[in-house]
Amino acid sequence: MASAAAASGLDLDISPGVCPNSLDLKSQGVLDIAILGSEDLDVKTVDAANATLARGGWEGRLKPLYWNYEDVAAPMVGEGESACPCHQAGQDGFEDLILKFDIYFMIKNLELQAVAGQDILLNLTVPLQAAGGALGEQREGRECLKIVLSEVRP
């Protein structure tokens, strides 16, 4: 979501390489949210252990289970035509930080069942490490996610 990222300081990509960004309430496992590295952001300066994920307008928060570093995506250019734009741009030569969030706890802590069938904004806030390892400024990114509930088949 280009405009939100530009305004907030982080480019994010939920489930890199997949479009549209969606989460089935019957899913299990982890949801990947990539913080996209760039000339302006070395993702190794992000304090991943203190990253927090929230749903816009909701008090619940969630920390990642674990994370890894890999070049998985490029920032989206332009706005896209939908209310929840996304793209499938691949690697761009910059290392990205992929945070892994437990889907069960996302659904519970962010009360995602209450917004089934809707597009929501997820807010990711991360502290950056300043020189000497101290925590410095906070950066935030926003990305759209469609919440779906698949039908159970007999």
Compact description:
By secondary structure, the protein is mainly beta.
Keywords:
Immunoglobulin-like; mainly beta; four-stranded antiparallel β-sheet; 9 strands; five-stranded mixed β-sheet
- Work out the number of β strands: 9
Nearest-integer average pLDDT: 86
Class of secondary structure makeup: mainly beta
- Strand order of the biggest β-sheet: 2-9-8-4-5
The major pleated sheet works out as: 5 strands, mixed
Task: Bin the strand percentage.
Answer: 35-45%
Helix content: under 10%
Q: Total number of helical segments?
A: 2
Structural domain tally: 1
Low-confidence stretches: 1-8
What shape does the CA trace take?
globular
Q: What is the CATH architecture assignment? A: Sandwich
Order of helices and strands: HEEEEEEEHEE
By CATH, the topology is Immunoglobulin-like
The N- and C-terminal alpha carbons lie at a distance of: 37 Å
